[in-house]
Amino acid sequence: QVTDGGTIKQKIFTFDAMFSTNFSQMENYRKREDLVYQSTVRLPEVRISDNGPYECHVGIYDRATREKVVLASGNVFLNVMAPPTSISVLAADTPAPFSRYQAQNFTLVCVVSGGKPAPLVYFKRDGEPIEATPLPEPPAGAGSWAPRNLLHRDLDDTKVPKSLAAEGEPGVGQAFGTAEPPRGLAAERDSVTETIPETVVSREFPRWVHVAEPIYYFRHTHAPISDGTVEARATLTWTLNPQIDNEALFSCEVKHPALSMPMQSEVTLVAPKGPKITMTPTRARVGDTVRILVQGFQNEVFPEPLFTWTRVGSRLLDGSAEHDGKELVLERVPAELNGSMYRCTAQNPLGSTDTHTRLIVFENPNIPRGPEDSNGSLTGHCGFRLVLALTLTVILELT
């Protein structure tokens, strides 16, 4: 086997036929025999590393002197194919904020690994092949390779997002901020947390969104891997229209000579709906560390949403206005947080949803109460000081 560009020739098999030659058994006569030898090398369970050139060297020896008189060689190239081992479809640049009221590009990335040679990758929408404009060069930025006929928000200044307008309506948005939270420590009650019904952001879109066939842009690249295989990446970019792209099925399909049928992976673009929120501990006491976590949704969400936590009507415990991530951690909660409302906004390019939960904080018997909660002890201290002052006055007067 020839490796490293011909610099190394590793001997993998040798067959010596000199001492296995048959001779005739007739008296004083040595029959001339035409002997044909065939040497076969078998590579069981061929691997990618077996790919490359092979040489066969044949030496013919003189029987009397056993010296090599003829040397010949031949070569063959073994081309090993390998089908792709994995395929996945991802959304580029997610999770990230995405405005439904501004035209923005969306990109799907199909990654195919483990194949040799490079496979053919293409996209389908709802089972139909997508006719896309190829992009031969990598884009310098989103603006340089975006569709040039994008319509912008400034073409429709009269539209006010309902999600913003609703904040002034009763029962939504500011209603939680204007309500006075319960003061003092919570009384004993059966329900520790109060679950507020989900508020789904309205899917009413501005007039720049037109129900029309989008213009797709396609780019295909591949890079060699150290094991001899190729990683192929295909990107599909278009101006997302949540009005028609929500619940659209996109599939990435791969054709390869080592595959008898195309290999595929598919995703469905879906907005988040019905977040499931848990709070631990379920019965929070003063001084506990409270964790509020989004465990999932009522549906399969793609692409991955961005989670933003806010405290309705006030800042978070650490003083920040909002917190990003699936989990919100409140370290050593004070009694003042009792009754506070927390909002979790989950959004992806297809839509967003808000879910609220209320924190109830109970007394902690392990933490001593302050002077203002000591049932008249502060008044008792003042009375003691007053009696002491009068006694000193009387003593001074008698003296």
TrEMBL record:
Topological type in the membrane: Lipid-anchor; GPI-anchor
RNA-binding keyword on record: no
GO annotations of cellular component type: adherens junction; postsynaptic membrane; side of membrane
Superkingdom as given in the UniProt entry: Eukaryota
PANTHER family per the UniProt record, alphabetical: IMMUNOGLOBULIN SUPERFAMILY MEMBER 21 (PTHR23277:SF121), NECTIN-RELATED (PTHR23277)
Keywords, sorted A to Z: Cell membrane, Disulfide bond, Glycoprotein, GPI-anchor, Immunoglobulin domain, Lipoprotein, Membrane, Postsynaptic cell membrane, Repeat, Signal, Synapse
Source species: Cephalopterus ornatus (Amazonian umbrellabird)
Compartment(s) where it occurs, according to its Swiss-Prot or TrEMBL record: Postsynaptic cell membrane
Assembly, per entry: Interacts (Ig-like 1 domain) with NRXN2 (via Laminin G-like 1 domain) in a trans-interaction manner.
Lineage start: Eukaryota, Metazoa, Chordata, Craniata, Vertebrata
Function: Involved in synaptic inhibition in the brain. Selectively regulates inhibitory presynaptic differentiation through interacting with presynaptic NRXN2.
Protein name (Swiss-Prot/TrEMBL): Immunoglobulin superfamily member 21
Residue ranges, annotated region (Disordered): 166-190
One Gene Ontology term from the biological process aspect of the record: heterophilic cell-cell adhesion via plasma membrane cell adhesion molecules
Keyword NAD: no
Domain (Ig-like) ranges: 275-360
InterPro entries named in the record: Ig-like_dom, Ig-like_dom_sf, Ig-like_fold, Nectin/Nectin-like
